Amino acid sequence: MTTLADKPTTDLSLDEIKLGDIEVWMRPDREAIFAKLRDEAPITFHAEPLFEPAPGEEMLFEAVKGAGFWAMTRFDDVLTVSRDPDTFRSTPSINIGDIPPAIAEWLGSMINMDSPKHTKLRLIVNRGFTPRQVARIEEDVHRQAAEIVDSVAGVGECDFVNDIAAILPLQVICDMLGIPREDNHRIFELTNTILGVGDPEYVSSGIELMSAGMELFNYGLALAEDRLANPRDDITTSLMMAEIEDENGKHKLTSAELGSFFLLLVAAGNETTRNAISHGMLALTQHRRQREIWAADFANVSPTAVEEIVRWATPVIHFRRTASRDTVVGGQAIKQGDKCVMFYNSANRDERKFENPFNFNVLRSPNEHVGFGAGGPHFCLGANLARREISVMFEELFRRLPDIEISGEPAMLQSAFIHGIKRMPCTFTPAK
Ligand code: HEM
Questions:
Q1: SS3 annotation, the chain
Q2: Predicted TM-score of the model (pTM)
Q3: Centre of ligand 1 from the C-alpha of residue 229, in Å
Q4: Cα(13) to centroid of ligand 1, in Å?
Q5: Is the CB–ligand 1 distance for residue 376 below 6 Å?
Q6: CATH number of the domain at 14-427, out of 3.20.20.70, 1.10.630.10, 1.20.58.1000, 1.10.3720.10?
Q7: For FRET with 127, which of 159, 165, 198, 427 sits at 20 to 30 Å CA-CA?
């Protein structure tokens, strides 16, 4: 079990811990803050908002302001909320703030829905992400990872995030959706903006956020239009061909459904895996022994190493649910309509669940982390794909650049939602 020496500490008192305040998220003692909450006050109420509208934009975001939220920090409580979708709903939003009506059309994808609509929409894309489908694109993923490493191999140094980690997930999801290569960079910039809310480097105003969302949404619609005339073997074509049955009878996806699907897939498909790979490289630099263990027996250690990277990184920090009735979680009364936020980062360090959770251990087993969600109908659709991408990327890195290491401080994304690294230098002996 965790020893006192491993366990981080904070000098903040419980009253001073305000999870709705973005400053808390930039503190170096973030792990310690959550350890304190888990031990002393596992479910606490916090004020909103995390996102301050720019001057003049207050009206636009008026509807988003909520009364506050419950923070679930223990593993067991996160599981309780995630696995009871009747009591803990994903509508109206899985973000802490509700979706402003002005952008609800393009942000209202299946991740913000409950059954039966969620189930119907999920079935449509499910087929693109089964282990068999992922195995089918395996060769492609390998080739792309090799090309990415080739492109930097001769130089001896680069930015690990932008030159290596970001590219594979971006190319894979763009290829799956049928997005031409020349547009990949613009997609990258737009998803950075959408998931960079809270970090002034990416989003300085709500208008900027809205126009990025709108551009992606419209891009998806245009691509889908093209696939109507020119069907191909890609997910966009299957979305165009799919039929859904709801209160309006049987029909093709509406443009709103289609555009927001597209937005969800590109955003979810590339920001998360990029950060898992980046945090993984940082951890392997800081924990030499773990790297040696993995490199010495790559294929056999990969399954546990990849899960440990996802636990360690927890690229998605939280998702929210909304109580549909009065209930009790972990002894805490929750009222109908209350927002309940599952802090996956904290559940993944819960000393009650994980032995030595602050140790990075590529052989950890069992490792029932909640990095891809804590179970329930919204469990990450891309988990199999992400696992393959992470494994293949490290396989290529270990093979071609065996001494690659992070050589400077990471620039962290200012966010309570995405555990992101924006930039991080790396060095290695140049290879041919
Ligand atoms: C390491 C990488 C990834 C992490 C950590 C991650 C994490 C998550 C989490 C925490 C959820 C919410 C689960 C829940 O509410 O129960 C989720 C949902 C989702 N993820 Fe991932 N994800 C990753 C990669 C991907 C990839 C590569 C894709 C591919 C497109 C993807 C697509 C999705 C989609 C579509 C959903 C919504 C599913 C639904 O609402 O039914 N994710 N992911």
A1: CCCCCCCCCCCCCHHHCCCCCHHHHCCCCHHHHHHHHHHHCCEEEECCCCCCCCCCCCHHHHHHCCCCEEEECCHHHHHHHHCCCCCEECCCCCCCCCCCHHHHHHHCCHHHCCCCHHHHHHHHHHHHHCHHHHHHCHHHHHHHHHHHHHHHHCCCEEEHHHHHHCHHHHHHHHHHHCCCHHHHHHHHHHHHHHHCCCCCCCCCCHHHHHHHHHHHHHHHHHHHHHHHHCCCCCHHHHHHHCEEEECCEEEECCHHHHHHHHHHHHHHHHHHHHHHHHHHHHHHHHCHHHHHHHHHCHHHHHHHHHHHHHHHHCCECEEEEEECCCEEECCEEECCCCEEEEEHHHHCCCCCCCCCCCCCCCCCCCCCCCCCCCCCCCCCCCHHHHHHHHHHHHHHHHHHCCCCEECCCCEECCCCCECCEEECEEECCCCC
A2: 0.95
A3: 30
A4: 34
A5: yes
A6: 1.10.630.10
A7: 165
